[in-house]
Amino acid sequence: MTAKTRTELAVLGGQPAFLEELHVGRPNIGHRDKLFKRLGDLLDRKRLTNQGPLVEEFEQRLAEYLGVRHCITTCNATVGLLVAARAVGLSGEVIIPSFTFVATAHALRWNGIKPVFCDVDARTHTLDPVKVEELVNSRTTGIVGVHLWGRPCAVDALGSIARRHRLELLFDAAHAFGCTVDGRMVGRFGTAEVFSFHATKVLNSFEGGAITTGDDEIAAKIRLMINSGFADYDKVVSIGINGKMSEPAAAMGLTSLESVDGFVAHNKEMYRRYHEQLGGVAGVEVLRVAENERHNYHYIVLTVGEGAGLTRDELQRVLWAEGVRARRYFHPGCHRMEPYRAAEPDVGRRLPVTERLSAQVLCLPTGTAVNRAAVDAVCEIIRTALTRRAEVRAALANPSHALAWSVAGRA
Ligand SMILES: *Cc1c(COP(=O)(O)O)cnc(C)c1O
Hints:
Blueprint: E1 22-23, H1 32-45, H2 53-66, E2 70-74, H3 77-87, E3 93-97, H4 103-109, E4 114-118, H5 129-135, E5 140-146, H6 155-164, E6 168-172, E7 180-181, E8 184-185, E9 192-196, E10 209-213, H7 216-226, E11 230-232, E12 235-236, H8 247-278, E13 284-286, E14 300-304, H9 312-321, E15 324-325, H10 340-343, H11 352-360, E16 361-364, H12 372-387, H13 389-397, H14 402-409
Parallel strand pairs: 1-15, 3-4, 3-5, 5-6, 6-9
Antiparallel strand pairs: 2-10, 7-8, 9-10, 11-12, 13-14, 14-16
């Protein structure tokens, strides 16, 4: 990951700055001795899954950390969302943002629910409550807000819309572990919230997730559902799925949880460094976080505006040529992915902010696998490319860059 002393941008014929590629979402790894100890113990116990002691401990520690009444771990957040949607009784139509990872939409559609895509606020990148209310109709049963980039939704405004129209309110909190709203920790909003502990998230259990809720009845329902509907030996009382977290996953989750405050401190330093170095650059903006709140600083979100001189996609190609795998999250938006596009080809017309953001946002590498020198090098590449935009544009138009094109096209 060491950046070499630069001579020339790679798109202009120089050597790539990073010989080992720099990725977005490289996993944060906690203390491996502690992980190996837990893995050794679980093998000795021969208890690999089915609500074993590590899952119990992980759920308890998460509930304490988040200050929630119930925390139910799952095999991943997608199944968590699937189960939460069913447990709270969503059906018909549910309002969600299109500017999110596609699992938010799939979890509803998998339950036979129609996701109704709503535009986001240009400043916060989360659901615009005014537009949410405009989409409520007689078929609407709920709202699923997404705390995108860990920046919490307008939870109070969405809460009052839900109450006014008697809708269920859930949150996809996949990005928001350890984030607060007015000092209140994410995990306590709506009827339930769903976290992801996928390897790319700030806290990981290899694959994993958790559903938090303050509702005893919903919690009991979810526990049944993720265990194939088994209430007791040989006794199935409802439709279920296998959504359980395994013991090795909980071992990793517990180990990550012990180190998560350190991961966040590192992220915050990288976040500040990106801001310092890109602050004065015309046309680009690093998304800000409210610094009076707790935040995990897990995503560095660059918006490449019209005044930048290069488009987001051009800048991405410049970075990929340097070995910096910046990502176009969440391009092109769920509404332009199948099966949603075919179902409603024109829905983009009511999503102007989503369409603009998905053309302008570029996520830059951060996390414990990225150090200060790497951030400095990434920022220097961006500044240099924008300063020399005419040359860069001409070079990118050259057919010999076809390879970089095709690679960037897969992002
Ligand atoms: C990662 C992610 C998910 C899915 O999480 P998994 O644990 O991978 O299933 C859902 N929603 C958002 C916004 C995500 O980023």
